Amino acid sequence: MRLSFGNRKLLVVSFVLLISNMAFANSQKIKIVTEHFPPLQIKNEDSLSGFSIDVINELLSTTEVKAEIDVLPWARAIKIADTRKNTMIFSITRTPEREHKYQWIGALEIDTKQCFWSLKSRRDIVITGWADVKDLRTAIAREDSQINRLNQNGFIESKNLYLTNDLAQSLQMLMQGRVEFLLAGELFISYYIKKLGLPKSKLKRYCFRNDGYYPLSIAFNKNTSQDTIELFKKSLQEMKESGALKKIYSKWMMFDGEVGK
Fold this sequence. Notes:
single chain, alpha/beta, D-Maltodextrin-Binding Protein, domain 2, six-stranded mixed beta sheet, 13 strands, about 40% helix, Amino acid ABC transporter substrate-binding protein, signal, Solute-binding_3/MltF_N
């Protein structure tokens, strides 16, 4: 079949654009910084794993962009992302204070609900929001961004709020009956339930939308080129639309306990 001049011209233009996009992707070299933050980023002895790591690896594969990933203390990662062009940082909370400091690719999380978790055996506990648990004891990791929100809603440390070293300690306190609740996202609770070998069938969750919650996201240094920003934005959006992001989320979501009413 012979192509008309117009069709041949269109074919040539399309081919040139394809080659140009491939050349652009292959020429890009970015730096990626993050921290050890299970189950989002897990630094193993000789490898990296985690929900966010899987997402970033998929993005790098689809964009064909070269990258180096450094797992660093968070303060150092922030400093590098603030000062070095073409640096990606994740998983970073997108707060109003940070909005102008970075170029944002998008949120990593599918489900942004924060949940109160209690023992399934406590059938007397029924809650619809934060205010309902103020008369009971809640554990939360001392570095959790939700502490201010709890304080604003009447939670007082050592009275009805107990700060722990991490979510693992909060879970142990819940299992031992030292608190009635802990507050955490579902992805995090799923990871630690499996890690600690705890019986997930003994837990129930009460989830609600939280206006004070800011999503964990992917961002770039503010001086990164718009071509790079748009490339990653498009790729992340395609992951959401194709179901690829949801598939990764499902891989790390293992909770199948009871949902509170």
